[in-house]
Amino acid sequence: MKAQQLVRIRRISQTVFLLFFFFFLIESRLPHDVFVDYSTVFSSEVDLEINYPVRFFFQLDPLVSLSSLVSGHQLIKGFWWAFITVIVTLFLGRVFCGFVCPLGTIHHMVSWFKPTLKGQSMVRANEKTPSQRVKYFLLITVLLAAVLGLNATGLIDPISLLFRSLALAVFPGLAAGLLELSEVMALSDIKGINSLSYGTEYLVQVLFGFGYKAYQTAWFIGIVFLVILFLNRIRPRFWCRVLCPLGALLGICSRFSILRLEKNQEKCTNCNLCTKSCQGAASPRPGQDWDSAECLMCFNCFSTCPEDALTFRFRWSPLKLNKAPDMGRRAVLAGLLGGVSLPLLGRLDGQAHKVTDPRLIRPPGSLPEKEFLTLCQRCGQCMKVCPTNVINPTLTEAGMAGFWTPHLIMTQGYCEYTCTLCGDVCPTGAIREFSVKEKIEGPIKIGSVHIDRGRCLPWSGNGPCIVCEEHCPTSPKAIYFHKGLVTGPDGKEKLLKLPYVDLKECVGCGICEYKCPVRGRPAIRTISAGESRSLENQILL
Amino acid sequence: MNINHPITRRESLKTLITISGAVAFSGVSRFPLAALAQAKAAPKRFIVEGVGQTQAYSLKELMRGVFDAAGGMTQFVSKGDVVAIKPNISWARRPELAATTNPQVLEAVIELCYEAGAKKVRIVDHTIHDARRCFAITGAGMVAKKTNADLVFPRSSLMRQMKINGHRLNVWPVFVPLVEADKLINLPVAKHHGLSSLTLGIKNWIGGVGGRRYALHQDIHQTIVDLAQFFRPTVTLIDATRIMIRNGPSGGSPSDVAVKNTLILSNDQVAADALATGLFGHRPEDMGFIRLAKRSGLGTDDLNLLDQKRVVI
Fold it and tell me: Are B98 and B256 in contact (CB under 8 A)?
């Protein structure tokens, strides 16, 4: 096959996979079909279903499967896709990086678009450097930490990182900007601009969901993403070469690849065009030893070489291995040290092992905290899919070990009584799949509420209010009244309905806190105590 | 130019923006136009009670009977009208739990509206639970699809600060599609309510506003009367096919539901509520909001002042 054709196929493949990634990301939402069939409506609460395989890219990612396996001892749903990725890598090298990975594609585009580096400086930037060992260090760190009980892989796994960045920062940011713009346009007297504003609003709703979305620490997620993108200006595909732990894992697998770069020293004129176009800094020039572990299989060198001194060929001699990945002893040792340290350091703030932060309300169906931390990829799938925007990344609520894992902020939304989407989309089962029935009839509870009598309107004598009781979705209601005399601000006694909480009935959905008219700090608040996933974090016997 | 039709420029966009359950609106009407139209002529006040007594009565027939007794739907909906229907579909509860307007009632009304020549019927409610869940579970989504009505997705861009001019409420964010329709039909379900004791037609207007609407509960009777005075529907049709007799307004158990097979239609909001009060065994004068509404001249609870009719099938 001609080199140019290979490059064209690569570009098409990258585009297709990137578009699929965007599509699945957008479709990770409450299905828009509200026109469900009458008969199903009448028969029972219908379990929600997302009609697309929105977890596909996580299943394709061997690092997600591997870390879940060594940490949570779980074979995740669809893990065999990751198995296929590994098999393909064993035969063909890092084609996942060059042809499939959506984050790689984005880096590729950013690197390619009007590069700052030109000529000799680009050649120098694409020479292999020892910094490329950092990714092995990161891989060993996260995998060893995962074995020892803290799965932090998702913080730097490329698929999780991209999903989190796009779903929690980039898309909500764009949507907010577009909505602002459409509001400005709506003020216009010119009909065309005015009409355009409705078109914009419509587009935003279809692509980004209804209303403004807000996520705790989203600005930080966004900045991290921007910095990673910016690094491509220093060296092309900086992330893929230096930082990506998945790249490191696939690089190790590529040692056995039978698709190899063959160099013809005689034909080479040392023009360095191959190095100049090399995305992985994999030493493509004849005279150098080709690093299969660094090669992203972009086929740029093959395609640019004017002398035909480079070709990719299958060589059916599996016993003859490629050059070993250049990990460096120090990177390995540092990785081992880091891997042991992380889970130990993660325990030091006491979370999960000693105390439980009352704000750490996990989504329904979440596993017990220790198991949760062995599986959660912090990818943001559950946060993206949540229709009320209640699921947010943690900052300190789960301790440093649980940074960016999901938790519920009831002032931002509430857990919809008949919704099961977060369990449906979780790629690793940290939030297991659960049914509406389990939410309504038990055993699932996510926390409990308590009333702040100093702020509550009836309790403080400031007037009648029944909003918490009215919204309580359980039957019988977890919030009930006793009539009682309270002294009002004028010193007179009033007979008011005073709300109480029945902890046995309360599931912690938080709609009472969300709808409480007492703003600022609501008069009824949700805490994690009473969550069904924990034996310890309970109130009642 | 029809002053009651401020929507022309967005009609041109309609094909572009009609999606599953969501229609983008502009909504820059500066004052309640529907109320203006009402003020022009004071039609004769009536009240119709329709009861289905046979075992398998047809709800559609009953609906037609009720409207015919009031002179037919054409009395209320003219050719080319945009009709907004305000059901109570605020809770993501199954229809048989009686927390929401019966979808079959909704369907029957929409069909009559289209029959009378309505250009478009919109189902408008600012739901409490997530609107998409409400539309799906209450059956309103299905009705919209079957009858070709629009489901309006509530969102902040459709809320506009408007002058309510009530005793208690001055300016409040209003759900715009309700005020910019030509005709407005209030279609509440009759339910028990923990604070106002019953939620009928007048209370249904809480679902027509946005903002800090849960603070309205601190003076529930006066605020809902203020809202009813602001919205002034063409007719009120109370769905009492089945009513929630306790644990309102959200209920959640079939044991809270009583079957009454009754529809109440009136162009007097207070009278409709007063008649529905009887279904629960209460007296209208015990309802705070009915007393206040009467005092402020919104209507009467003395049904003898109205043209009373009863339809039984």
Answer: yes
